[in-house]
Design goal:
Layout (H helix, E strand, L loop, with lengths): L1 H20 L3 H5 L4 E4 L2 E2 L10 E3 L2 E5 L10 E5 L4 E5 L4 E5 L4 E4 L4 E2 L4 E3 L2 E5 H8 L2 E5 L6 E5 L7 H7 L1 H14 L18 E10 L2 H13 L4 E5 L6 H9 L3 E6 L4 H16 L5 E4 L8 H9 L3 E3 L12 H14 L3 E7 L2 H16 L2 E4 L11 H4 L1
Parallel strand pairs: 1-13, 14-15, 14-19, 14-20, 15-16, 16-17, 17-18
Antiparallel strand pairs: 1-2, 3-4, 4-11, 5-6, 6-7, 7-8, 8-9, 10-11, 12-13
Length: 381
Amino acid sequence: MKKTVLKAVCLAAALAIVLTLIPGKASATGDLTFLCINDTFIYSLSSGNMPLRMNGSMYISYRYLMRIKPIKYFYDSDSRILKVYNSSKQLIFDIGSGITYDQDGKIYAFLAEIRGGVIFVPIEFICRVFGVEYSVIPTEYGPVIRISSIVSPYSDSELVANNEETIRNIYQRYVDSLEPENNVTPQPDPEPEQTKNVYIAVCGELNEHTDRLLTALSSYGYKAAFFLSGDLASQGDLLRRIVCEGHQLGVFVSADDPAGEAERINELISSLVFRKTRMVCVDQGSRQLSGEQLEAIEAAGLRLWDASLDPGSAVSNGYTVSANTSNLLKKAPRTSVLRLMSTEGAADAAYTVMRNLKNGNYNLLTMQEWTTPVNGAGFYK
C-alpha cells in the first residue's frame, strides 16, 4: 500500500514539472496587456512599450496618444516636458521637476514615468480630463485597455468577440518575442554627453540697447524671453520686432504689487501687439514676495520666473558682463536662467556671450508659457 502511494506521489510531482515546461497562455497572461484605440488593436506591443500598471493606475507609451483624435501632444526632449492638449484643454507633464498641471496651473498627482527609456503617461487620467471613453476588458490572454474618442458600434464584449483571432495573433507574437536569442552579447548604452540647459531672459525697459541685444541674438539664431517694463507705448516698433523675430514676452515687475503691475503692463502689450503673457519676473526675485502676493499671482494665472545667473549687466561694462557670464556658466547647474538687462554693458557683451554659449557645451532653450518655471517650480508643488 505504501509503495502504491509513494508511486502516485512521484508521478504527480513529475507531471507538475512537465507542465511547468510547456509554454502556454498561463505563462504570459500576467505579463501581457493589450491596447485597443478606436477599435483598432496595436500590433507592435513588446515588453518595452506595452501598457503597464504603476502607482495604482494604467500607463501607456505617450507616442500612442497620436492615435486618440483630437488629442495632440508635443514633447520637448531638452526641457523634458510633455504637453498633451486639444482645442480647449492642456495637461503639462514636467518630467524633470516631477510636476503635472493644467492650463489653469492646477496641480495633479498623476505623473509621467520613464521605464526603459520610454515615457509612459497615466492614460485613464488623460481620458478622464479630455472626455475620452476608457475601459478594461478581461480576456483569457490578458486584459484589453480600450480607448475610444469616436462613437463605436460595438460593446466591449462584441469588440473582443470580433477580434479573437487578432488577440490570439498579438499574444503569439508577444510570446515569440520572449524567446531568448543565442550568442547575443548585450552592449551597454553609451553615456550621454552632459549638456547644460540655458534660458536667456532679457529684462527691463526697451531702448537702443535692446535693439543691439536683438541683433546679437538674431546673428546666432537664439531666442530669448523679454520681460518688459517701463514706457512701452513709445517703443512699439521695437516690441513688434521682438514678436516678429519669434521671441517670447513676459513682464518685469517690482515686489511692491507684482500682480497689479503685471496686469497694467499686459494691457500695454495687448494694445500694441494684441497679445498678453502669463510669464512674470520679479526684479529682486520671487522670494521677496509675501504669501498674499503669491496667492494673487496664482489667482491671476501668472507663472513666476527667477533669474539664477545674473552677471551684473545692470551696472557693469561689457568686459565685466562677459567675464562674469563665463564664470557663472561654468559653475551653473544643469538648467539655469541667464538674465541680461537692456543696458549698454549687456549690449557691449552680447556677441561675446552668444559666442561663448555657442562654443561651449550649452543647450539654449526658449521659455514657453506652458513650461514649468525653473526656479519657481516649488511654488506650484
